[in-house]
Design goal:
eight-stranded mixed beta sheet, alpha/beta, six-stranded mixed beta sheet, Rossmann fold, Ubiquitin-like (UB roll), single chain, Metallo-beta-lactamase, Chain A
Length: about 550
């Protein structure tokens, strides 16, 4: 196939998170979204997981721009790390998303390296790389989410971003432009890349405005203080909380750095309005009766350092949970965070707080992702020639592919992509024609983005099996041992002292043998020590702790 359009997912297919898609035409390319995901239990010491940027770095001279569909971390969080790797690049998105990006780049000291270009949904066309781009407003759980339509000789390549069709959105929310989507479909959609998160859900997603009504009911019946946690970027939820608190005569304190930052950006752009004079600082709440207080805070996913988690552990400097408090989780639990969320809930329960989640009151949260009915409507409006379900695990992608077949999308032109697949469509057809290097990039607590898989493997080994440290002093001339060998264990139980003594004897025997063989190289001595001690450990315990030999030449 020649003269076609290529789409290469570097993240976001076969998973939920770290969305990043390269779109190429005429040997030029743009990137749509550049997000992160969060570490799993088997990735100790990692704070963020990024896409693998190797393909972009190798093709930096062909990269024209980055386009961001909206401001969630799984769509923008990796941008500073990409800029650090490849240098400055134009970034196109809506005002609120760019506000979040500007703050993020400023934290990394990279703001002066990026040209942030504001775009608006509607009929206007923007020249972005080899494409003429249009943007279509969509409803999601964050302001100003947009679908991206790239004009090509084949028709439009449309990336939906995350979306839902909300029958009753809150007044400040972006409304899905069904007419704009229909116009794209009439003009011809060569390839549709669409959000698959809730493809397996058949029940309609409740309206976001229902959440405000549910919060009002909680405030009305709560005997004391109410704490509400949700995603810090969910400005529509923040607005509803403020409105409900105002009507119930309560003051509100926002607790959490990201929540205050995002709310400040939204207020400056006129997206978030504060009724009356109800916002206050946490330290000023103590002057009010408990039944006139609301605290909105971060920590809905049990993040250890987030405000609610610290409150649950009794470590927050300004807020102490007490009996009679009501804590509302106005969120769903992201897969993989169940244990952390349950731990936070249990800690709150021990403090005799009343905890309300989706399980107790389903209307306390509404998803920002459309269920199967919304996805079907998108497919019917787009009528794509080629279709690739994205932003979902394989079960979501296959469910979305099945939905597409019911509205006439050719199954032979529906592609279940994996990260690294090269999908090409042209006038003759379409298919996966190649694969590129893809993988994971780990960011640790110091912000380093070069944590190797070997390091994680060692961390897992230490966590599972422990370590045995063997320290020996030898003569520099002959390698002969000078003092008693010291054996120390951490994270590994050696039982009684007999095993430790056997390990010392094995280590001393190894050194004596090496000395007789005139072995003096420290590296060789350490390897022989390792093998001797590890052999005894396996034979005596059946375990394989990490053996770390240290040889000091004197």
């Amino acid at each position: 196939m020649t003269g076609g359009v290529r789409v290469i997912p570097l993240g976001g297919t076969g998973e939920i998170g770290k969305n990043m898609y390269v779109v190429e035409m005429d040997d030029r390319m743009v990137i749509i979204d550049c997000g992160v995901t969060f570490p799993r239990n088997e990735q100790p010491g990692v704070d963020l997981v990024l896409p693998d940027f190797e393909y972009v770095e190798e093709n930096r001279d062909r990269l024209e721009a980055v386009i961001l569909t909206h401001g969630h971390e799984d769509h923008i969080g990796a941008l500073p790390y990409l800029v650090r790797k490849i240098g400055g690049i134009p970034v196109f998105s809506a005002k609120f998303t760019l506000g979040l990006v500007r703050s993020k780049l400023d934290e990394h000291g990279l703001l002066d390296r990026v040209d942030l270009i504001d775009v608006e949904p509607g009929g206007r066309r923007y020249e972005i790389g080899p494409f003429r781009a249009r943007f279509v407003a969509l409803t999601h759980s964050i302001p100003e989410c947009m679908a991206v339509a790239l004009e090509t000789p084949l028709g439009h390549v449309v990336h939906t971003g995350d979306f839902r069709i909300d029958p009753k959105p809150v007044p400040s929310a972006t409304r899905t432009d069904l007419a704009g989507l229909a116009r794209l479909g009439e003009e011809g959609v060569a390839l549709l890349l669409a959000d698959s998160t809730n493809a397996h859900e058949t029940a309609p997603v409740p309206a976001e405005s229902n959440v405000g009504e549910a919060l009002a009911r909680v405030f009305a019946r709560a005997p004391g203080r109410v704490l509400v946690t949700t995603f810090s970027s969910h400005i529509h939820r923040v607005q509803q909380l403020l409105d409900a608190a105002y009507h119930d005569g309560r003051s509100v304190a926002l607790v959490g750095r990201s929540l205050n930052r995002n709310a400040g950006i939204a207020r400056n752009l006129g997206i978030l309005t504060v009724p009356g004079d109800i916002l206050t600082k946490p330290r000023e709440l103590s002057a009010l009766p408990l039944d006139e207080q609301v605290i909105m805070c971060t920590g809905s996913q049990g993040e250890p350092l987030a405000a609610l988690s610290r409150m649950a552990r009794g470590e927050h400097p300004q807020v102490t949970i007490t009996a009679g408090d009501t804590v509302v989780f106005s969120s769903s639990t992201v897969p993989g965070n169940e244990l952390a969320v349950n731990d936070t809930i249990n800690r709150l329960s021990r403090l005799r707080a009343t905890v309300i989640t989706e399980n107790e009151e389903p209307s306390i949260h509404a998803s920002g992702h459309g269920s199967s009915g919304d996805l079907l409507l998108m497919l019917e409006l787009m009528r794509p020639t080629h279709f690739a379900p994205i932003h979902g695990e394989p079960r979501h992608q296959f469910a979305h592919a099945d939905l597409a077949a019911t509205v006439g999308v050719d199954p032979e032109r529906t592609y279940i992509l994996e990260n690294g697949d090269v999908l090409e469509v042209d006038a003759e057809g379409g298919g996966i024609v190649d694969r590129v290097q893809t993988g994971l990039t780990f960011v640790d607590r110091q912000g380093a983005d070069d944590v190797a898989e070997e390091v994680l493997r060692d961390r897992r080994h230490l966590a599972e099996d422990g370590i045995v440290l063997v320290v020996a002093s030898v003569g520099a001339e002959d390698g002969a041992p000078l003092d008693e060998v010291e054996v120390v264990s951490r994270g590994f139980a050696p039982g009684d002292g007999e095993l430790l003594e056997d390990l010392r004897r094995a280590a001393r025997g190894s050194l004596d043998e090496s000395s007789q063989m005139r072995v003096t190289e420290v590296g060789v001595l350490q390897q022989r020590l390792h093998d001797a001690v590890a052999s005894v450990l396996r034979e005596r315990t059946g375990q394989s702790p990490m053996v770390l030999p240290v040889v000091l030449e004197v």
